[in-house]
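Progress against Task 2.4 (sequence-to-structure conversion) is shown through the following example record, which the project officer requested during the mid-term review.
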Amino acid sequence: MLVLTRRVGETVVIEDDIEITVLSIQGKRIRLGIKAPSSVRVNRQEILERSAQVVCSLAEQASFPQGKSAAAAVPERAGALLVS
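Structure tokens generated for the chain above:
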């Protein structure tokens, strides 16, 4: 991981087309401005993690009957994969 020190108004450039600028610092909060091409997805990590949890939860609810967990089915599925 590259660690940089920046002041308000300073920018970091990635691959010539992504710019990250420090907009303000207030206590422990830092506001960043990000310029990137529309083809580049920019997300906060906690949002991605929360989305992944929701997707896994929905997939588990759709795949397993009530009362049976995904963890309980792993050995069955692993065995089925080895046999086929």
